Amino acid sequence: MFNKRLQIKLNKNRGKQSFRGELFNIEQLADYAKLLAVHQKVGESTHNNYLRERLAENEEVLQKYNSEVRAATQLSYVTPATEWVIDNFYLIEEHIQLARRHFPKSYSKELPYLKEEPFKGLPRVYGMVVEYVRHVDAQVDEESLLTFFRAYQETAVLKLGELWAVPIMLRLSLIENLRRIVARLKQDQKDRDLANTWINWVEETGSKRPSGLVELVSEMAKSELPFSSAFVSEFSKRLSSRNPSLTIVRNWFEQRLHEEGLSAEEMVEIENQNQAADQLSVSHSIKSLRFINSTDWRDFVEELSLVEKTLQTDPVGIYGKMDFASRNHYRHAIERLARKSKYTEMEVARQAITLARNVFDKSEGTREAHVGYYLIADGQEELKNTIGLKQTLLSTFKKLLGNYPLTLYAGLIILLTLVATFFYTQIARASDIPVTDWRYILLSICCLFFISQFAFFLVNWLSTLFIRPDILARLDFSGGIPAAYRTVVAIPTMVNSEESVRKLISDIEIHYLANRDTHLYFTLLTDFPDADQQVMPEDTHLIDYLRSAIEKLNHKYGAEKESLFYLFHRPRLWNPEEQKWMGYERKRGKLMAFNQFLLRGGYTAIPGDGRKSLCFAGRKICDYVGYRHPVTTL
């Protein structure tokens, strides 16, 4: 439970003023971030739940203010800041819900916290964000944000979890800032309403019974008037009329201000400045909330993450070519290892790179030279030993489960079935039913069957709790397929008529139009239906028709220098078991023959000149004698 003394202090010291300090330019922000990094004292983690509690309070205050303003039938004056809040309250509500969803209670436990005031007990990244928001007047932009955090990390390295928490903390700090401004707007509105109430009494008394103004001034003198800028400004504006009967009130008010060391002109100017500043702060906060929604925070994290920069030095150069999900999977692996060891995330990343580089220096190109081998693959144990990570009972069980999955899976089902069946037999024996009785045997068989089904479902359910699905690392081809990874899309099929050929050509054209890429090729792997003889009369016509259709596709899409579309056809072979001439192994056989052609070039191809590199299934396989003609016989 959060320390109540700290909560009271935070509410008193932090809840009054908005996050508005001296405005810094880019260079000043960088210098200030470096200063923070030097002087902040940080602890490992905190169980403090103040931010979630404060978010609930902020939501309540903002919703209440919105309801009160909308419900008010008549307001003496609506400030520009209030209009901004009311008009954009839907956006504020949206970000409150997002902040609550993205900042669960467990998240705080993973974030380092500050040991000293003014943010003692709160996450370091929250303190950083508040300082940033204060010195940009809530006007968040990508350049200043990157500069601030980049400068901070020149002295103190932030964890990956802290970088991912930046948008969450921005939401929390901006909502907190709005709540503080709204609290002041609400108080200012009360002061203006109080000023109007007194002025209404003064005007009514002056018009009906001028002699009563002396008594009214006496009551005002006895009252504890706030004399805030909002009160004085509103009171002065209403007293500015040239009604002679109000002279006594005007003189008393000016004298009272003089006693307080104030003047009406100065207070009006201060109120105008406050309203302008509040309008700017609210508008900046609203625009910054929109900025949070429109920003791709994945780029932000990768730009600032020193772990990311370390992994980019992968000896084989594969890490930088992977898609974001795969890179993030690697970084999460580093987070988990660092959390369980005495090493920081940067140190774990460096150790993984070192292990990969040692292998790369000896034998370039092996999978052990890729950093991912030590983060998510078989090299994990070697990395764990390097960083001194001890085996726990759970990790040992998971390791056994990974090495002997079928044995443990089937063994556990059998064990549960036998144990449950044993207890059943003991209960049956206690009922004096003879073991040789046919009813006992029948019930035992039924019991064994039902218990095994229960054990099967129980083990499946337990598997979902202990076993996580493996994420397959992928290369990023969103910007196009590189020449080194040229790929062919192979469609195995059967042709038996001109109609089927037209359908195939239409399908392969649609596939091309949906996946246009310079280094992506398309091919049909075809054969004929079963027949009583190897060559049927219509075979030659269908092959010529297919050949012509493929050539027309290449000509249609401008494939003059090299073909985009290909045709690989194989003849019928005699099958003694079926007593038919047919294509070997149907679909699988065509794919096997095509792969063999790519790997070994063992089939006769229609001659052509030049050489051509082709890639199948996303990786470079072979160089083979190329062809200019798009039709090849397997």
- What is the strand arrangement across the widest sheet? 3-4-5-10
Instruction: Determine the N-to-C terminus distance.
Output: 73 Å
Give the radius of gyration.
Answer: 39 Å
What percent strand? 5-15%
What coarse outline follows from CA principal-axis ratios? Answer: elongated
Helix content: 55-70%
Q: Identify low-pLDDT runs.
A: 1-15, 602-634
Largest sheet: 4 strands, parallel
Number of distinct beta strands: 10
Oligomerization: single chain
The number of helical elements comes to 25
What class, by secondary structure content? Answer: alpha/beta
**Mean of pLDDT:** 83
Q: What is shown here, in short?
A:
This protein is α/β, with parallel strands linked by helices. The protein is elongated. The protein is built from 25 helices and ten strands.
Task: Annotate the secondary structure layout.
Blueprint (H helix, E strand, L loop, with lengths): L3 H11 L11 H14 L2 E2 L6 H22 L8 H8 L1 H14 L2 H5 L3 E2 L9 H12 L6 H11 L7 H49 L4 H10 L6 H11 L7 H13 L4 H31 L2 H8 L1 H6 L12 H17 L4 H18 L9 H4 L4 H7 L6 H11 L1 H26 L7 H29 L20 E8 L3 H17 L5 E8 L11 H18 L8 E5 L3 E3 L4 E3 L3 H15 L10 E6 L2 E7 L5 E3 L1
Parallel strand pairs: 3-4, 4-5, 5-10
Antiparallel strand pairs: 1-2, 6-7, 8-9
Walkthrough of the structure:
The protein has 634 residues and is of the alpha/beta class. The chain is 61% helix and 7% strand. The strands form four sheets. The chain has a four-stranded parallel beta sheet, with helices on both faces. Helix 5 runs antiparallel to helix 9 and helix 16 (324-340) crosses helix 17 (345-362). The chain is elongated.
